[in-house]
């Protein structure tokens, strides 16, 4: 699997992955994804094999009172390719991009019933920092995870 930063020509394939990974009431709209991918303080990484995209991750950051914080917008891997380390590789890449931009804390929401994603985040040293009831449109609760990053340039 090869990993590289997002290019605008990837958009249609990434939106197709979005539609496979999430039901209509939980997925991002085309417009939201386009706007997210155009933000200057955003890192988007794609996983690619034989010119076919297998997944992507996106995180955006902003300056807050506590410093520069990043939010993991999404990590998506095609269903038939899950469990092969692609998600963790994508997450590590957005973490490195965020750290290179000076981010000290990265955080995310995850569906409280998504055991696979929770295992991934905990394996990568994310700590649960609370929850929000009825966070998702389907009424599911979200767990909030965060991680302290060491700021360093990309290798």
CATH architecture: 3-Layer(aba) Sandwich
Distance between the termini: 19 Å
Rg over C-alpha atoms, rounded to the nearest angstrom: 15 Å
Oligomer: single chain
Amount of helix:
25-40%
Unreliable spans: none
Number of helices: 4
Characterize the overall form.
globular
Structural class category: alpha+beta
Number of domain units = 1
How would you characterize the overall build of this protein?
The chain has one domain: Aminopeptidase (3-Layer(aba) Sandwich). The chain is about 30% helix and about 35% strand. The protein has four helices and seven strands; from the N terminus they run βααβββαβαββ. Strand 4, helix 3 and strand 5 form a beta-alpha-beta unit.
Nutshell version of this structure?
This protein is α+β, with helices and mostly antiparallel strands and 155 residues long. 28% of the residues lie in helices and 36% in strands.
Helix-strand blueprint:
Layout: E1 2-5, H1 11-21, H2 30-38, E2 42-49, E3 52-64, E4 67-77, H3 86-100, E5 105-111, H4 115-123, E6 127-132, E7 142-148
Parallel strand pairs: 4-5
Antiparallel strand pairs: 1-2, 2-3, 3-4, 5-7, 6-7
Task: Please supply descriptive tags for the structure shown above.
about 160 residues; alpha+beta; Aminopeptidase; 7-stranded mixed β-sheet; about 30% helix
